[in-house]
Request: fold
Amino acid sequence: MKQLIAKLNVSDGFGNKKVLKVFTNKEEGTVGYSLVGLNSGISFAISNMQCGWRGPNLPDNTYEYETNKVLLDAVVEAVMGGVYKVSSRKLFIE
Reply:
């Protein structure tokens, strides 16, 4: 079952603010993402974040991470390696 585990408030170099939602499915071991505009609610492609450009790619499975906090730390590191910066983060499920 897909569960929302965290939300990150991110912004690009122009100050455009978006929310990155992180979902996991523990039965399948997958990680999913949703990127929406903070004020508009418009969905954006995850590829717009350009993760993996200067740093690691976004995690795509849960098996490599002991806890959701460790997974979230890896997500933040990947986001910071792209063109977005993380302004705040909230972990819902430890």
User: Anything to note?
Assistant: Residues 2-91 form one domain. The beta strands are 2-11, 17-25, 30-37, 43-44, 85-91. The mean pLDDT is 94.
